[in-house]
From TrEMBL:
Family as reported in the entry's similarity comment: Belongs to the NapB family.
SUPFAM superfamilies in the cross-refs: Multiheme cytochromes (SSF48695)
Species classification: Bacteria, Pseudomonadati, Pseudomonadota, Gammaproteobacteria, Cellvibrionales
Source species of the chain: Microbulbifer harenosus
Signal peptide feature range: 1-23
Name this polypeptide is given: Periplasmic nitrate reductase, electron transfer subunit
Length: 162
């Protein structure tokens, strides 16, 4: 692109921006695209919905597939995790589990990337929330048709039996 083309492009962008401002003034109620957050107008800034409430599970949640990091069944609001403190490990570390009654972090959490088992939690497993997430009562904005592999296998068995 030579200097002249850059200049025309910049000029075109300025004209476009001014045009959008004029459109906004003329049609303040133009409906916005119905994205994940529905309703509202093109030029309106909606306030964010309130934070969803965390869910405390009764008992264990089934994992969707064997390698899934189990979801966190309890609230973790205000739990501090940084270089000095790890609130999760105050209950889930091997030595704490007798007192806390929490399940111990599994053996994979002690392995470094060469699968050497260390004495304590491996650095790559230190920040628990990279993999484990709590659940809330929020309604999912997009549907989900995930089927458990056990159900798929059962369906296939039934089909081949027919
Ligand atoms: C006060 C103690 C305590 C703290 C702190 C705590 N947990 Fe827990 N956690 C438990 C107990 C007890 C359970 C067993 C289920 C239950 O009773 O809710 C559990 C269950 C879990 C499970 C489910 C395990 C499974 O097999 O289904 C995960 C995952 C988990 N916690 C992750 C975390 C993470 C991540 C943090 C930090 C953000 C954390 N926990 C902090 C006590 C604790
Ligand atoms: C890199 C991802 C990752 C990180 C980081 C991680 N986990 Fe896990 N966690 C997993 C996976 C995957 C599983 C299930 C398979 C397994 O045990 O490795 C699991 C399993 C667990 C379980 C269930 C153990 C059992 O025997 O049923 C607990 C409790 C748990 N993690 C707690 C924690 C805590 C506390 C931390 C932070 C100190 C943490 N995890 C960090 C991926 C992770």
């Amino acid at each position: 692109m030579n200097g002249r083309q850059v200049f025309s492009l910049a000029a075109a962008l300025i004209v476009l921006a001014c045009g959008l401002v004029t459109v906004a003034e003329q049609f303040p109620d133009a409906p916005g695209p119905d994205g994940i957050r529905k309703g509202g107008t093109l030029f309106e800034e909606q306030s964010a919905p309130p934070l969803a409430d965390p869910v405390n599970a009764q008992g264990k949640r089934v994992r969707a597939y064997p390698e899934q990091p189990p979801t966190i069944p309890h609230t973790i609001r205000d739990y501090q995790i940084d270089k000095n403190v790890n609130r999760c490990l105050e209950c889930h570390n091997r030595i704490q589990t007798g007192v806390s009654g929490a399940p111990m972090i599994s053996i994979t959490h002690f392995m470094d990337r060469d699968f050497q088992v260390l004495a304590d939690v491996a650095p790559r497993r230190y920040f628990c929330l990279q993999c484990h997430v709590p659940q809330t009562n929020a309604q999912p904005p997009v549907g989900n048709s995930f089927k458990d592999v056990d159900i798929l296998l059962r369906n296939r068995k039934q089909q081949s039996a027919q």
